[in-house]
Amino acid sequence: MEDALVWLPGKTGCYTTKSGYALRLITLPPTGISKPLFPWLLWNLWTSRNQLLFEDKKFSEIKVINKALRDAKEWSLAQPL
């Protein structure tokens, strides 16, 4: 079985813009961060991957996510209003 991108269909069995927006509403619990977290998650996945490959350090998924949230909050607080 190959990996594939899959969108869950709506009630009619079709993927619609409306069902896409409904899926968009399913997010992490509130973080207090108004900017997207995706770049922070990617960066922390990349750095934890490098630490695994080059330093043999392993991090759990929760630690990577928590670090991404901390980094995003710190960056957000450092930005001018």
Automatic annotation (TrEMBL):
It comes from the Eukaryota. This is Uncharacterized protein. It comes from Brassica campestris.
